[in-house]
Description:
By secondary structure, this protein is mainly alpha-helical. Strand 5 and strand 6 form a beta hairpin.
Amino acid sequence: xxxxxxxxxxxxxxxxxxxxxxxxxxxxxxxxxxxxxxxxxxxxxxxxxxxxxxxxxxxxxxxxxxxxxxxxxxxxxxxxxxxxxxxxxxxxxxxxxxxxxxxxxxxxxxxxxxxxxxxxxxxxxxxxxxxxxxxxxxxxxxxxxxxxxxxxxxxxxxxxxxxxxxxxxxxxxxxxxxxxxxxxxxxxxxxxxxxxxxxxxxxxxxxxxxxxxxxxxxxxxxxxxxxxxxxxxxxxxxxxxxxxxxxxxxxxxxxxxxxxxxxxxxxxxxxxxxxxxxxxxxxxxxxxxxxxxxxxxxxxxxxxxxxxxxxxxxxxxxxxxxxxxxxxxxxxxxxxxxxxxxxxxxxxxxxxxxxxxxxxxxxxxxxxxxxxxxxxxxxxxxxxxxxxxxxxxxxxxxxxxxxxxxxxxxxxxxxxxxxxxxxxxxxxxxxxxxxxxxxxxxxxxxxxxxxxxxxxxxxxxxxxxxxxxxxxxxxxxxxxxxxxxxxxxxxxxxxxxxxxxxxxxxxxxxxxxxxxxxxxxxxxxxxxxxxxxxxxxxxxxxxxxxxxxxxxxxxxxxxxxxxxxxxxxxxxxxxxxxxxxxxxxxxxxxxxxxxxxxxxxxxxxxxxxxxxxxxxxxxxxxxxxxxxxxxxxxxxxxxxxxxxxxxxxxxxxxxxxxxxxxxxxxxxxxxxxxxxxxxxxxxxx
Length: 685
């Protein structure tokens, strides 16, 4: 073997093992020995630097080459694709064609993958057409990439067609199609193909199992997933050393709520991936097991694994959902110290965290200081303004987004219309909704129409809102009818409420929320017979409404309460405090509990007690007992999983007046800022 071949061999080994340090030493030897402009050596250098994530060095070699062949261009494209820069790969393909270098099967395969990753269907179809004309479509590597591209672009029928056209199907072909089905939510088809490939004598590998388990996870096929798990064990697969399979199993068990099995698999894995850590942490948090989630996150930070953007944004999402302000601030401090903290997904999640924790000024400061913003950045902020009832600010931000040449998407319009709705901006809502309907690029969905129904409902234009639902071009869903029904209760319109209620109960007869909403309209009108008839139906069907839960953070610890909860160590003191506040409010404001917000099949005294100890009141009681009333100028923050009830809303308004305190309550709909006896929602939520 001559020197040139030896150098090439060394570079290929460095590429295979991602040995950057050794590769750079070999590069030095290449320069000293006069092979700097050798085509083969240069191609190997580009490949090595690409595999070692040093694209700036790969570009330096590429730019200095006196001549380039198809291998040079393709190796450079592969490097960008590996670094998640699919768009740069497509730009290189365009440059390559203009340089009169003909693509080969690997060039086409690489760029079909790039189109799939970006969701660029039109570009993918164009490349597919070029493959057909040049004869490369028949190559297996190209055929597999075509299947992958169409699957990623949501065109599963085209992917299926190509799959069935393939004269010979390799294991990769089967894997790509199984993964494609799983990707678009056709888990049952993935499982069918998994069985079919084995019947045809093809043995699954780790990628087959991982994709099939992902399919099981997608449609909650726990039994089938457990069977595959058992099969892997009996066949001697060492899950402890199979990161991809282990990750898929953890995801399956987390999504099915089986955290015990998920943690069991996780504990067996020798080299845990950052995705597995995050999946398990998020799983515990979603089940309300915050202590376990935080313990795992602490272990992750103490491990040798580098926190990436996915982990940071996922954890920030947990802190945002549970309003863990102090932990969110700590993670923000951690994020600014590492490169991944500059990922735009992380920056967006930080803005979202501050907004959901009730720190709107901090959110604005962070948003204004972001080095770059995408459409999600603007949408998060507009959504936040909407939750706070700051509709005018949301409209101004939407205009500013246009000035900054950021095109709004459907979600941006939804955020804006929701903000306008929460602030009663009827004219602005109609204007922007009209813009959306006339757009050549976007189409309004049922959620956009629901915003218009909500704003018309707030304005008391109930019949007009019902006409909007009946005439809209998209099929009405349960949510839009619930929106109109809520407006009927606010305006005490029993006639339309009964009409909407009948529609709603036919559409979604097993949802207890619908029965409660209709029943409340009848109760407000004192139509007790109809009210009790609906409550009887709920009991006979065995339906149970989701329990109301509120929480408050005190000294970096979360305290959770349910209605009439007596499990807290300070329950007696909280109850005594609430009795004391009741008396003070009665004496100073003439406050009495509105029992229409409670059950109608119990006596008034029981109803009064039921309302006294709603979860949000218990959380507020604890906050005030713990010194919340001693922090001047700092609002007390309470969070609830459901919509705050009418009595509690009146109660907190009164409390803010007699205590001269600001109370910030985040419920399922929005933020309520209570100050001096008034609420920012203007009593419509």
